[in-house]
Specification:
By secondary structure, the chain is of the alpha/beta class. It has 12 helices and 18 strands. The strands form 4 sheets. Strands 3-6-2-1-9-11-12-10 form an 8-stranded mixed β-sheet, with helices on both faces. The two termini are 34 Å apart. It binds adenosine-5'-diphosphate, aspartic acid and magnesium ion. Magnesium ion (MG) binds next to loops.
Length: 402
Amino acid sequence: MLVVKKFGGTSVANKERIYNVAERCIDEYKKGNDVVVVLSAMGKYTDELIAMAKDINENPPKREMDMLFTIGEQMSVSLMAMAMNKLGVPAVSLNAFQVAMHTTSVYGNARIKRIDSDRIRTELEQRKIVIVTGFQGINKFDDYTTLGRGGSDTTAVALAAALHADKCEIYTDVDGVYTADPRKVKNARKLDTVTYDEMLEFATLGAGVLHNRSVELAKKYGVQLVVRSSLNTNEGTIVKEDAKMEKMIVSGVAADTDAARVAVIGLKDEPGVAFRLFNALAQKNINIDMILQSVGRAGTKDITFTCSDDDADEAAKIISEAMKFEDINVNKEVAKVSIVGAGMQTNAGVAAKMFEALYDENINIRMISTSEIRVTVLIDEKNVERAMNAIHDKFNLGENEK
Ligand code: ADP
Ligand code: ASP
Ligand code: MG
C-alpha cells in the first residue's frame, strides 16, 4: 500500500513534534507500506518570512517572495529526514526541483500541471521514506513558484493522484473538519464525513482547515481524504464523493476576514458602466466576489463589490483611472460569514433563519449573496465570532441529528 501523509506547520513546530511525526510515519513504514510525507514550514515560519521581506521592501517582487518561501518547507523536510535517520530508518528529503513538480508560471498562486513521479518511485523502491516539500513548485522558467497560502494540502493531494496512492491523510492541529472553526465557535462539532462539493465551498468561504484547490483536485481525481490530528489517534473526517449526509440542511458555518468592500458612488446610469468597471479590474487580475448595484436615481447609480483586503486599494486606484463617478469608499473592516449545506436546495427559509440569528444579535448585514448550497453575508469584522456562534446555535449545528 502507498500512503501519502501531510503534516502542517503546527505538527512540525519544534523538535518534539518533528520526532512525533517521524515516529508516526515510521509506524506506517514498518507495516510494510510505502510512505510519502509532505510537510509545511515549521510553525509560523512562512509568516515570519513575509515579515522579513516586508521589512526590506513593503512591496516585494512576487518571484522573490516565492524564492524566499521555499526555504521554509526545505528546512522542515531536511530536519525530518535527519530525525528518521536518527531513529534508524532510511529517509530522503526532496524539494520541488528534485521531484519535478511542474506548475503554471504565476508566482504566489501557481497551479500544479504535472508531477514526474520517477524519482519518488526510485527512492520508494529502495525502501526509503520520501519526504517532499509542500506548497512549492517550479515553472517553465525553472523558477520556484508557490501554490498560495495553505498550499501544502494541494501538494499532498496532487502527489496522491500522481502516485495512485491508496490513502491520503492530512494531519493537522484539530481532530478533523468541524461544523465551524473550533477555535471560534465553542459548540462546534466534528463531522464524520463531508462531500467534496460541500468541503470545496466550505474551504473557499474561509474554513482554512483545507486548501480549496486540494479539494478541487481530490474531487477531480477521486482521491479520498482523511483530515485528522497529528497529536492524537482520534478518527478524523473523511472527505469523499457521496458522503452519507447526516440529514443536515446546513452542515457548517465559515468566516473569511480577508474581505474588503469597495463602494463606487454616483456612476452614470447607462449601458456599459459595469462592463467597463469590472473589465478594468479583470485586466489587472483583481478577483471580485460579491457585487451589488443600486437602483438608478437621477441618472446615477452605485456599484459595490468585495475583493480581498490586499487588492482593495489597488482596485480603487484602477477604477479612479478608468471611470468618472462622485465618490469611492474602501472598507477593510468587513468580513464574510457563510452557511454551507447540500440540503439547502430543497428547504425554504434557510436564509431567513440565518438573518434572524443576526437580527437577534443586532448585527447589521451589509451585503448578501447566495448559491444553491450556501448563503453569504458581509458584516463588520468585529462582529464575526458573535455572528458565527449565533448562526451555529440557531441551526443547532452542535447537536448530532442522525
Ligand atoms: P495546518 O498548518 O495543519 O495546515 P491550518 O492552520 O492550515 O493547519 O488549518 C487548521 C486550522 O483550521 C485549525 O486550527 C482551525 O482553527 C482552522 N479551521 C477553520 N475552520 C475549520 C473547520 N471548519 N474545521 C476545522 N478547523 C477549522
Ligand atoms: N507554509 C505555507 C503557508 O504557511 C504552506 C502551508 O502551510 O500549507 O501558507
Ligand atoms: Mg493548512
